[in-house]
Amino acid sequence: QWSVPEVGSWLVAHGGAEGLAELAHSHALTGRVLLRLTEGSLRRMGVTPRSRRRELLRELLRLRLHREIQELQSITREEQDPSGHCRVPRSG
Predict the structure, then answer these.
(1) What domain count does the chain have?
(2) How far apart are CA 52 and CA 63, in angstroms?
(3) How many CA atoms, within 13 angstroms, populate the side-chain half-sphere of residue 71?
(4) Between 78 and 50, where is the model more confident?
(5) Contact yes or no for 45/23 (Cβ under 8 A)
(6) Could you tell me which residue ranges the SAM domain spans (predicted)?
(7) What average pLDDT does range 64-90 have in this prediction?
């Protein structure tokens, strides 16, 4: 889970403007909140122009997908037996 300063750093790195770090602080954006941002929320926070919002949304999508892949890999590892085969629960 990212802290507000970590979110600010991510926004600057992926949004290209120092003002985005200030947005993270003024809106107390944690990692959980960052993953839930929408174009509307970015607009209400004052992120302009629209092209910057779109670029941030693309980067957020990449971040969400990366997170989902990591979670799926973790689940897959947990469901494997020592030989690397998936354990299939038996029904009945």
Answers:
(1) 1
(2) 16
(3) 6
(4) 50
(5) yes
(6) 2-66
(7) 79
